[in-house]
Write a structure and sequence with these properties.
alpha+beta; Herpes Virus-1; 2 domains; nine-stranded mixed beta sheet; four-stranded mixed beta sheet; 7 helices; 14% helix; RING-type domain-containing protein; zinc-finger; CGRF1; zinc ion binding; metal-binding
Length: 276
């Protein structure tokens, strides 16, 4: 799978769209939705004159993780969807101290601490490890039976991440891949039995590269429910070449891009873009 890197950052996930890809943030840039909702209607504005072109790089990812939000809770467990092209390992850490998490994540010793099973050892309540020794698609249920009780008794202020997931190549006697391939790290909010608690969702997804950089993963979306994922949503013939921001729809070709000032899928004004 190809992962794309760029500079936008958003919290929201578009559940109704059929398919999602990933892009990565080097520097997080905040966008205020009110800035776009209050814009006056504009006519005959071409995108190349008004939107910023975000430069991008590409990296390969051998594994990706997603969650089944609707049926994942502290009580029933969290359902993880994993796609992997290599032998890999999934680690789950329950109720992780947030400050200690970032300190260990940013440490130069990060990979060695994973290799030696020291990562978050003293800064989580419970942990599990799952090995996937063949490539393919998996659904893995992760459960901490005492999660609800722990939350009620110890974590009402939410100073801890309910769940942290880490995916990396399988550690063997020859662990060259482990020290070379990106490691995916995800923090999750997990829905409790409290009626007002929001649904389970990713808080943050990070790819840790071999050189120590941390790149923040975000979704980009294609309008696959309406037509072919790879064709422009305007002309329906040419391949998609542009991802529009801040909505993150990958939906227009190079020619049609110069004719629009709003996303053809969601009708949100385009303020920046990158090419794929």
């Amino acid at each position: 799978m190809i992962i794309i890197t760029q500079d936008d950052h958003s919290d929201h996930r578009k559940r109704r769209l059929k398919r999602s890809l990933f892009y990565i943030v080097y520097v997080s840039v905040a966008f205020d939705q009110d800035d776009y909702e209050n814009l006056d209607e504009r006519i005959n504005i071409t995108i190349p004159q008004s939107a910023q072109n975000i430069p991008v790089d590409r990296i390969d990812s051998s594994y990706t993780i997603n969650i089944e939000e609707n049926r994942s809770t502290l009580k029933d467990g969290v359902y993880i969807r994993l796609h992997t092209d290599i032998h890999c390992q999934l680690r789950a850490f329950w109720f992780v101290n947030i400050q200690r998490f970032y300190k260990e994540l940013d440490s130069r010793d990060f990979r060695l601490s994973l290799y030696d099973n020291r990562f978050l050892k003293d800064n989580c309540v419970h942990q599990e490890t799952f090995n996937f020794e063949t490539s393919g698609d998996y659904v893995q249920r992760i459960e901490f039976s005492d999660a609800e009780n722990y939350l009620i008794n110890n974590n009402e202020t939410r100073r801890e991440y309910p769940l942290v997931l880490i995916v990396h190549s399988l550690i063997t006697e020859n662990s060259e891949e482990f020290f070379q391939l990106p490691i995916q790290v995800a923090t999750l909010h997990v829905k409790s039995s409290i009626p007002t608690d929001p649904p389970t969702k990713f808080i943050l997804r990070i790819s840790k590269l071999a050189d120590g950089r941390s790149l923040v993963l975000q979704d980009i979306f294609t309008p696959g429910a309406f037509h072919s994922d790879n064709t422009c949503a305007v002309c329906l013939t040419e391949p998609v070449t542009h991802v529009l921001l801040p909505c993150k729809h990958a939906c227009v070709c190079r020619n049609c891009f110069s004719l629009i000032d709003k996303c053809p899928v969601c009708q949100r004004f385009v303020t920046s873009y990158f090419q794929i």
